[in-house]
């Protein structure tokens, strides 16, 4: 199956195929999907290792359990995306928008979250010394904007 061709035919076609083939292993590793429009796309359990998803629109996408190891998500729009249980180790999320994103049970070891916007996201349990980022813009609610450094997550000072 040519998964890239299917995806390029449109997110509607991709999602419809996924409904009919929910257990089929999909491999999009290493693909250039930058600037793609994948609104509410179903990428659950998909192998996206090393893919280029820079500035991709993944608003409302289902990436639960996806392998995003070493994937470049710089500037990607991941608002309301489901990343529950995804592997984002060594992923680049610099400048990504993670508004209301589900990051629970996500592996972020060595992930880069510099300048990421995390607004009302469901966060994983922090404390790994392998999470590397310099600065995160985190908004808890409309009245409170906070900026954190890595040490704040490691020491559990995130409210």
Which descriptors would you attach to this protein?
little secondary structure, disordered C terminus, Pectate Lyase C-like, 9% strand, three-stranded mixed sheet
Which structural class should the secondary elements be placed in? little secondary structure
Q: Indicate the CATH architecture.
A: 3 Solenoid
| CATH class annotation | Mainly Beta
Poorly predicted regions are 128-135, 137-141, 144-159
Name the average pLDDT: 83
* Whole-number tally of structural domains: 1
SS strand fraction: 5-15%
Describe the global form. globular
Helix-strand pattern, N to C?
HHEEEH
Query: How much helical structure, as a percent, in the residues?
Result: 10-25%
Give the C-alpha Rg. 15 Å
Number of helices: 3
CATH superfamily: E3 ubiquitin-protein ligase SopA
Strand neighbour order, sheet with most strands? 1-2-3
CATH topology: Pectate Lyase C-like
The total of beta strands comes to 3
Terminal CA distance reads 46 Å
Any overview of this molecule?
- This protein has one domain: Pectate Lyase C-like, CATH 2.160.20.
- The protein is 13% helix and 9% strand.
- The chain has helices at residues 3-8, 11-20, 150-154, and strands at 116-119, 136-141, 144-148.
- A 3-stranded mixed β-sheet has the order 1-2-3.
- The chain is globular.
- The model is unreliable at 128-135, 137-141 and 144-159 (pLDDT under 50).
């Amino acid at each position: 199956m040519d998964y890239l061709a299917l995806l390029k035919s449109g997110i509607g076609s991709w999602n419809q195929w996924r409904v009919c083939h929910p257990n089929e292993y999909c491999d999009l590793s290493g693909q250039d999907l930058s600037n793609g429009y994948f609104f509410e796309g179903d990428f659950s359990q998909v192998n996206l290792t090393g893919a280029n998803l820079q500035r991709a629109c993944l608003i409302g996408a289902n990436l639960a359990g996806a392998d995003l190891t070493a994937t470049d998500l710089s500037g990607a729009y991941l608002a309301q995306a489901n990343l529950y249980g995804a592997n984002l180790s060594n992923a680049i999320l610099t400048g990504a928008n993670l508004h209301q994103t589900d990051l629970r049970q996500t592996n972020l070891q060595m992930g880069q979250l510099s300048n990421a916007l995390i607004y009302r996201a469901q966060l994983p349990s922090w404390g790994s010394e392998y999470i590397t980022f310099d600065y995160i813009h985190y908004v808890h609610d409309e009245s409170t904007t906070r900026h954190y450094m890595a040490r704040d997550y490691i020491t559990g000072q995130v409210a």
